[in-house]
Design a protein that fits this description.
The chain is built from ten helices and no strands. Helix 3 packs antiparallel against helix 9. It has one domain. By secondary structure, the chain is mainly α. The two termini are 28 Å apart.
Length: 228
Amino acid sequence: MGSLILETLPYAIAAMLAAPIVLVVSALIIGKAERPVRSASLFVLGAVLLDVLFAAAVLAAYRAAGMDAGSGDVSAWIDSILGALFLVLGVKAVFTNPTPEERAVQRARVEKLATARAMGLILGGVAVQIINADALAVFASGLKEIATTDPFPAVFFTIVVVVAVFLFIMLIPYHLPIEMYLIAPEKAGMSMRSMSGWLLDHSRMLEIVVGLGFGVLFLWKGLAVLLG
């Protein structure tokens, strides 16, 4: 189990870094909601529900397609496509600079979600995760490490634990503000406001760094197998 968690770890970290703006949403929910922990937890729950269903569907598809330890080329193609996707996102961020008006619209949408009711928060968690399709793409690629394990985990508990660890890391931008609030409620507000402001101001640079960095990493990983 430990080795499988280590194999999926780079994908989990990449999925986490693919959606840093989510941290802003979670922080605003904590700052604006009447019941901060409950509201933020409902937002996280929406993302978790989608991810669990997504994981079950992807693993079932991999098994149905016959993905196993001998599917090295297929696995490498998946990594190569993922790397190309990240590179496209990184290059797009280089040449795309949102206007102040576009940033204001984005912030207004986030603040509206932050004050939504219970079902709105759950659906918001689902929607934000769908919008961050690049994180889901990384998640799907990481799941292939489970599907191609030799031997395939015979104990269902092993799969559950590996996926749970993956999701915990991947969803750090969702649940970190909750933990900060629980540890230090008095200081959390100021810390999250400064953190949210920094992320909003530097979101384009983060997209460039994450896109180009992980694009090169996964493309190299895939091409090394295909060309080797």
